[in-house]
Write a structure and sequence with these properties.
The complex is a heterodimer of chains A (415) and B (145). With 415 residues, chain A is of the alpha/beta class. Chain A has helices at 3-11, 14-18, 46-59, 69-89, 103-118, 137-146, 163-169, 192-201, 221-224, 249-253, 289-305, 307-326, 353-362, 375-380, 397-413, and strands at 27-28, 31-32, 34-35, 97-100, 124-128, 149-153, 174-180, 205-209, 228-232, 243-247, 265-268, 273-275, 331-334, 343-348, 365-366, 368-370, 386-390. In chain A, strands 4-10-9-8-7-5-6 form a seven-stranded mixed sheet, sandwiched between helices. In chain A, strands 13-14-17-16 form a four-stranded antiparallel sheet, covered by helices on one side. In chain A, strands 1-2 form a two-stranded antiparallel ribbon. Classes of the chains: A alpha/beta (415), B alpha+beta (145). Bound molecules: pyridoxal-5'-phosphate (PLP).
């Protein structure tokens, strides 16, 4: 056991942290809520709720260009989130941090802006077999529009990408590799540093879908040498409707705007418009100001706990949960990669995930059932759907025990 | 609480579905799909003039959707097309309205608990949506979306 692990197990005050999350204090169907759906969206601490409220109560104004006091305050608060996101990702400059609605919009922005300028007929884009639909469909649409080819890195039965096969897919026509840092359906942590280096050796760029990674592990875009990195605020304790796209400055500069409108321009005449500098070139219109401010509070809150400590606690929960679930007769865990984080997807012989989800809900336990926006993953494992318990640092070992008891209850009902 | 939703009859029909087989001489066939859970269902209907002589289904789904298909195929036999469609309407009301449970549903009332679980209504109606397209002669797969 590493020193961090044993230190975490004794000192991580999960009960105190849970006090910060008002949602967790309720009963569902007469039972204390056990929230195991953080991969879909994370719960929000008071720090975030209060920051959004304070913005609306005290500082509310549109940002940029206002000379009055409120506008200056709201601009400063919003832009401070950009700086926090830059530090959170260890990016080189605030100019590389673009506000988007979420991971989905981040991927679409790159596919649309970079893709339409740089992709030609016959070029190739590589994704993986475990991508979320949001890192499949934008590339598919782009490939269709450009007569380019979409290629897919396969995975093994544990749910690990097969790097030898990936190597074979790379060739001089490969222009972009787009993969998830962590799979939402399987929990696999992909070796993205190595995969990015391989893409670069082939002369391709790499976009990392960090939706599931940002809340669970230390992300360093410069150490990874990622060209683009996207994540969603709402999975990172922040509100919905806000997210971050990181892009290397030189690449962003060489991309056309994504949308036209206010804020993204320098000068406009009916003959010609010149565009604003980075990152504003990609931020047309009044943004989600309250959301941005909420996200800043979320990143600050995470920083206050320390992402390494979060990761260590979740790792122990995952280890314990996996051990406990594996013991249940007829239960099979889907996704058994050696490197995993925060997600346990499973099926139970003869019982449909929807029935599992409903019975667990009656026990106060929130899990997700279905294809998790990753239908190709379900096909790969020959299951129509799975039940997914996803963890966050505010979950406890006792909650894992309740999940196990809930699953036995499910088995009893459908025996 | 579990047993208000998963009543004995539902559990019984989900574990031992009736009429769960293909039908070679069916004269109406339709496929249903629930993209939410990936459930697929094939429905076979054999008509004699205006009367449903036989009905069967194949597919894999949750307990609610399997039991619903099983009980539906049982309750259809001997009904005219008009009667079958009227039953569909009643069943739909049972699941989606707050009104008193109407009569004429027979065993199908066991699904009354589903109305408290809006996320599961589509599971219970998949077979019936599919029936509608079979009776209307559409051979496009129907989707609950
Ligand atoms: C791996 C992964 N990528 C992308 C997304 C899409 O995120 P959003 O819906 O916030 O844009 C998700 C959300 O479930 C995800 O888990």
């Amino acid at each position: 056991m590493s020193t961090l692990t044993s230190e975490i197990l004794t000192n991580f005050d999960v009960e105190k942290l849970r006090e910060d999350f008002p949602v967790l204090k309720q009963q569902i169907h007469g039972k204390p809520l056990v929230y195991l759906d953080s991969a879909a969206t994370a719960q929000k601490p008071y720090a975030v709720i209060d920051a959004i409220r304070r913005f609306h109560e005290v500082d509310c104004a549109n940002i940029h260009r206002g000379v009055h006091e409120l506008s200056q305050r709201s601009t400063a608060a919003y832009e401070q989130t950009r700086t926090r996101a830059r530090q959170f990702l260890n990016a080189a400059s605030d100019a590389e941090i673009v506000f988007v609605r979420g991971t989905t919009e981040g991927v679409n922005l790159v596919a649309s802006s970079w893709g339409h300028r740089h992709l030609k007929a016959g070029d190739e884009i590589v994704i993986s077999a475990m991508e979320h639909h949001s890192n499949i469909v934008p590339w598919q649409m782009l490939c269709e529009a450009r007569d380019a080819r979409l290629r897919v890195i396969p995975m093994n039965d544990r749910g690990e990408l097969i790097l030898e096969e990936y190597e074979k897919l790379l060739n001089p026509r490969t222009r972009m590799v787009a993969v998830a840092h962590i799979s939402n359906a399987l929990g696999t942590v992909n070796p993205v540093a190595e995969m990015i280096a391989m893409a670069h050796r082939a002369g391709a760029l790499a976009l990392i879908d960090g939706a599931q990674a940002a809340p669970h592990l230390q992300v360093d875009v410069r150490a990874l040498d990622a060209d683009f990195y996207a994540f969603s605020g709402h999975k990172t304790l922040g509100p919905t409707g806000i997210g971050i796209l990181y892009g290397k400055q030189a690449l962003l500069e060489n991309m056309p705007p994504y949308q036209g409108g206010g804020d993204m321009i320098r000068t406009v005449t009916f003959e010609k418009t010149t565009y604003a500098d980075l990152p504003y070139k990609f931020e047309a219109g009044t943004p989600n100001i309250a959301g941005g401010i909420g996200l800043g509070a979320a990143l600050e809150y995470i920083g206050g706990i320390g992402i390494e400590r979060i990761a260590a606690w979740e790792h122990e929960l995952l280890r314990y949960g996996t051990e406990q679930l594996e013991r249940i007769p007829g239960l099979r865990i889907i996704g058994t990669a050696r490197e995993k984080a925060a997600v346990i997807s499973f099926v139970i012989e003869g019982i449909h995930p929807h029935d599992i989800g409903t019975v667990l809900d009656l026990e106060g336990i929130a899990v997700r059932t279905g294809h998790h926006c990753a239908q190709p993953v379900m096909d790969r494992f020959h299951v129509p759907a799975t039940t997914r318990a996803s963890l966050a640092f505010y979950n406890t070992f006792a909650e894992i025990d309740k999940l196990v008891a809930g699953i036995y209850k499910v088995k009893e009902v459908f025996a | 609480m579990v047993h208000e939703l998963y009543q004995e009859t539902i559990l019984d029909h989900s574990k031992r579905p009736r009429n769960c087989h293909a039908m070679a001489d069916a004269d109406r066939k339709a496929e249903g799909y629930n993209p939410l859970c990936g459930d697929k269902l094939k429905l076979y209907v054999k008509m004699e003039g205006d009367i449903v002589r036989d009905a069967s289904f194949e597919g894999s789904g949750c307990a609610i959707s399997t039991a619903s298909a099983s009980l539906m195929t049982e309750s259809l036999k001997g009904k005219t097309r008009t009667e079958a469609l009227a039953l569909l309407e009643k069943f739909h009301d049972l699941l989606t309205s707050d009104a008193e449970v109407g009569d004429g549903l027979g065993k199908l009332v066991v699904f009354c608990g589903v109305r408290d679980y809006p996320a599961r209504v589509k599971c219970a109606t998949l077979a019936w949506h599919t029936l509608k397209s079979a009776l209307n002669g559409a051979d496009q797969p129907v989707s609950t979306e």
